[in-house]
## 1
Amino acid sequence: MNVAGILKVKGSDIVTARADHTLLETAQTLAAHRIGALVVTEGDGRVSGIISERDIIRAIAENGAQALKSPVKSFMTANVVTCVPEDTVADLMNEMTQGRFRHLPVVEDGRLTGIVSIGDVVKQRIAETELEVEAMRGYIASG
Ligand code: AMP
């Protein structure tokens, strides 16, 4: 299974933020959608960053509750690692492990078309493992 297959199952809904939104607005959006990160986009749809719950925690730890009035651009990660529809589950696991993050925006021809989280990757990996176990059971039973 690859990224295209994962998006087919989960859909390509993407919740985004603007760089001038406050961290409070961002925290409220994350809570409302029960998600852990927002892709930061420009007016033309270009990806300019990613802001996750961890960035908000860091902002509060460093500056106290007043950090919630700060703009997203002060705490987002601007150097975003993205993936493409052809990437496999193994590729995603590798990127997330190497980069120590749990979200990968999907970008095609410079356009944001989805986001894959570690939860999607684990769900897919478990489904694949269960299929492999079933196949092995069938093979052993037929022997
Ligand atoms: P996460 O584990 O996704 O909550 O994010 C942990 C840290 O990595 C935060 O500082 C995020 O801004 C950053 N981050 C999350 N996803 C990515 C990504 N795809 N590329 C680069 N940085 C990221």
Note: The radius of gyration is 18 Å.
## 2
Amino acid sequence: MTPIIPTFAPLNATTASTKTDAVVFMVSSAKKLDADLAALDKKCGGIISTAIDSAAFTAKKLSTLSVHLPKAAGVAFAVLVGVGEVDKLTTLCFEKLGGKAVGELNKLRAKSATIIAAEIKSKKVNAGEQAARIGSGVMLGSYYFDKYFTTKKEDEKPSLTKINIATSALKSAQVAFAELKTLADAVNFTRDIITEPANVIHPESLAAECKKLTKYGLTVKVLGVAEMQKLGMNALLGVGQGSTKESKLVVLEWKGNAKQKQPVAFVGKGVCFDTGGISIKPAGGMEEMKWDMGGSGVVIGLMQALASRKAKVHAVGVVGLVENMPDGNAQRPGDVVKSADGQTIEVLNTDAEGRLVLADALWYAQKFHKPKMIIDLATLTGAIIVALGSSRAGLFTNNDALANQLTSAAEVVGEPMWRLPLGEEYDKQINSDIADMQNIGREREAGSITAAQFLQRFIKNETPWAHLDIAGVAWSKKSTEICAKGATGYGVRLLNQLVADHYEA
Ligand code: BES
Ligand code: MN
Ligand code: ZN
């Protein structure tokens, strides 16, 4: 659970003999040995250079080769990680290199390692940033959720517990890492709360988790059912009324910039468990719906990230926390509810609940915070997985500039998305025969778009707004260098990057 937090040390010719189980070297496609690697190679009679020259090692980006060293080396393994073409290296590449090293070291059952972050000549990323990014990759890549294992043996757990990163730019690496660490902590926190089962993380306990974030300087306000009833938030409340857990709306505010009167707002779907309600889901796979609070998990982690790095931004996060349960008091298909902004909704399918929660949460954010921009995140539709699979989130927005900002931030952090259309022809699909709108389309087609149209009906005055449907990306069945299978935390690094690029100062 606790990821490895790397330490940093100066780079010098003796680093390679640091008392760790393994040393990791980055090797570019030119296959040139840096000073440390050459020194170690000499100590062990040239077996490292022989291995590097062999066909077994391509030096392509993220290729690896591990060499078991003789006693004379003073360290058991040299792990070579290819970096490929140096000119193409971005900050994300260095993060992946750090994560890749963690994976290889665990395969070798190494307990500790030194990563030699000798400067790779790069126009884009300086030496300190390189080492810091490797460190960030170590933190993201070593995360795993083991809280509930009680009988696992040591040899079934990851072996690695300690990483030291050697760099020629120690000071700047440490400064850069201090900030990246706060971000990695926030991503891993998001992963934790998304992974927790629904008997542990439910509306009440998640609201309590949010309360704890006041320690970062966030103001955290929690509204319960009575307060929301007063505000007329019946769309959200209808979803939670079949649950024994009290529905909550949590508002997290970070005032990191006194000059910004209007905040940027992030709104998250927090359905802590989605049974579908009376329109109940089939049993197979229903357990996945514990992560239907993924959107709110991201918003909560993002707010922690912004506060803990003292971002110069005024930001507000609003999360609607409910549990969608079937029960004697649950809402029925065909019920009509009036949302807080006065629009009426015919609930034709109680399983299309996320949009009901978001309708009132979006209203709240606009009514009380007058944001200059709103982004919502939600595991909203199965249809987005059909359309885009599990590698990209679906992006819907009323603003081209915001689309561009998001798409470029996505590229930087490696959390990609794809824009889908909005339009009148889709919007009319959600007109109801009895109310202002219905919560599912008249046809089954374009399910993610009709869901987005529904949300757009709650955006006032053309406020720049984007909706990210993260149903396909919030959880992954495959591991990558910087993300073990399970909750990904997709969106925290993305929106942190967006804020850093466009909404600070
Ligand atoms: N939480 C689900 C969407 C979902 C499905 C997320 C699979 C992750 C994986 C959402 O509340 C839902 O049930 N949506 C329905 C909408 C339908 C009833 C119009 C869906 O996608 O089937
Ligand atoms: Mn549902
Ligand atoms: Zn749902």
Note: DSSP finds 15 helices and 19 strands in the chain.
